[in-house]
Amino acid sequence: MPIWGPWEFSWAWFLTASLGLWWYWRGVFRMAPEERPPLWRSALYVAGVLAIYAVLQTQYEYLALHMFFLNRIQHVAMHHLGPFLIALAWPGAALYRGMPGLVRRIVDWRFWHYPLLVLQQPAIGSILFVGLVGLWLIPAVHFRAMIDPTLYRVMNWSMVVDGLLFWTVVLDMRSQPPARVSFGGRALMAFVVMPPQILIGALIAFSDRDIYPYYDWCGRIFASIGAIDDQQFGGLNAWVPPAMMSVIAFLLVINALRLQEEREERLSGPSHEGGISAGDWTGR
Questions:
Q1: 186-199 tens-digit pLDDT
Q2: Which of 101, 162, 211, 275 has the greatest number of CB atoms lying within 10 Å of its CB?
Q3: Exposed (0-12), middle (13-18) or buried (19+): which is 68, by Cβ within 10 Å?
């Protein structure tokens, strides 16, 4: 197989990615020109879908099955980068327009409303976001997931779905309502998940023993990288990129708050008696 071909083909991943792209572009072209998302948002959506697809349905998956640090890069793409880009693209309206009628009726089914309200509560969403990462990194759980095809699929799907649930709340740039969480709550969500992820990565990176024997058991693809070095690189990958993305998300939320305050000032007029506006502390 060429490098862009799947190591193990999955109809579920293939259809999710291909239909997601097809419905999105179909929906964009069904919109009136003034309703269409800007090109940069569409580019972010495509990049997010492709980032997830690239680590799951190309030969990269074989490498991630044989090196811990590459497995961590895979999970960063599934849980952070891909869902982050998709959420920032805010593709819901275009996807909905492009879906067939039957799929839209399923999406509109009120059954989905209540689980999402629970799973996207700030506290629950933040705990799940960090907790699932920690769960799959427990050595015994990680070993079992890597040798059990069913559990391996559950692990990968949980990473992608949880990433989308979390980032679509944090990166909702609207004010509340219609956003479910206030700007302050979203900024707090982006911040509170950072220290636990740093701690998890540091515990792995600074361990002086091999805590993930699966990769010795299956054989490392790069023989020159030993178990401890592989673990250290993997710990850094579990530590640095997620922390950086949390910082970026925090700054994006603060910027959205500033823009919202400026819009409200323009609507209310030039004067703001006794209040403190975003322009007062940004210099704008």
A1: 999 999 999 999 99
A2: 162
A3: buried
